[in-house]
Design a protein that fits this description.
With 304 residues, the protein is α+β, with helices and mostly antiparallel strands. The protein has helices spanning 41-46, 64-69, 108-111, 113-121, 146-154, 175-190, 195-212, 228-236, 265-290; strands spanning 10-12, 50-59, 74-82, 97-103, 130-136, 138-145, 158-171, 220-225, 240-245, 250-255, 300-302. Helices cover 34% and strands 26% of the residues.
Length: 304
């Protein structure tokens, strides 16, 4: 499951827009630059149907797609999914499948001429090949949460192969928490005396999600030592990670000897995917539905 955590997308479609100066597709003059903000998107997702109970992994059976469509089961399906050729033009504005992929920053065909030249100009400080979150027309052996998968299927996407299903119980376990945080933030907007409480509740709401996705395997401990023998002993220890020389001492970073991974990462996977579902619903069910594509152009989307 950890390998399938795909964070909040931040994708640039067009780099620059200015009212009465730049043009959109078809050569039309840009008359407005409009931004939409989904307030507390992750908090909203946390208040939805969450995978609860003891998770069980089962083999994908022939009728599993129908069961997902009919809300008979909730969980995560590991599958291959693709956008049919006849729908690629429809989804070309905002590719629907989000996945992590290795991006080679040294390949001009991958990142485009402008970013390739910029990266070259940075010399040794240029970006190196790394895994990035991208939008795509297909996904191979990716884990998809049932509500998002339903949207994909309802909009014509095809599942070409199924592997396994992580089954969970459906329950809105955090709906009261979501309402409490949201109510406190609303009261802070109305009453100035409660503004500080609203800010604190905002942090509480964000940390509830952030904690579930925290990678505890990267946690380290820091110790300061000035004794040469103790410094040598720590450098030779198998948990040694790094060292920074201070005035008369050393700040030594050590990996954790024991880790207790008690975070429920399935919550962060579900929340990320519900947030992506909401973004797709907003774009294809609202913006693209009510406005002709000849009259607007998408510049950027982000959920961070």
């Amino acid at each position: 499951m950890k390998a399938n955590i795909a964070g909040g997308p931040s994708i640039i479609f067009n780099r620059y827009a200015k009212r009465n100066e730049t043009t959109i597709r078809g050569g039309k003059l840009c008359k407005k630059v409009i931004g939409y903000d989904a307030n507390a998107l992750y908090l909203w997702a946390l208040g939805g149907d969450m995978p609860c109970g003891r998770l069980t992994t089962i083999e994908a059976y022939p009728g599993i797609i129908d069961d997902i469509k009919n809300d008979n089961i909730l969980g995560f399906l590991e599958c291959d999914i693709r956008t049919p050729e006849h729908l690629r033009h429809y989804f070309s504005e905002m590719t629907p499948i989000f996945k992590n992929a290795l991006i080679d920053c040294t390949d001009e065909k991958v990142i485009g001429t402008q970013m390739y030249e910029y990266n070259r100009s940075r010399g040794n400080q240029g970006a190196k090949p790394a895994r990035k979150l991208i939008g795509s027309y297909f996904g191979e052996k990716i884990l998809i949460y049932a509500p998002l998968l339903k949207w994909y299927l309802d909009h014509g996407m095809e599942i070409t192969k199924t592997y396994s299903f992580i089954k969970a119980s459906s329950h809105k376990a955090f709906a009261p928490f979501m309402e409490a945080v949201s109510s406190a933030r609303r009261e802070g907007d109305v009453y100035k005396s409660k503004a500080m409480i609203a800010e604190m509740m905002k942090l509480v709401g964000n940390s509830a999600f952030g904690r579930s996705g925290m990678d505890m395997s990267k946690h380290t401990g820091i110790k300061c030592e000035s004794d040469d023998k103790k410094i040598e002993a720590k450098i030779e220890h198998f948990t040694f990670h790094g060292l920074e020389v201070l005035n008369d001492a050393c700040e030594i970073t050590m990996k954790k000897r024991r880790l207790k991974n008690k975070n429920s990462i399935l919550l962060s996977i579900a929340i990320y995917q519900l947030a992506k579902l909401r973004m797709l619903q907003f774009y294809y069910g609202c913006i693209d539905f009510y406005f002709d594509r000849a009259d607007f152009q998408l510049y950027q989307i982000g959920a961070a």
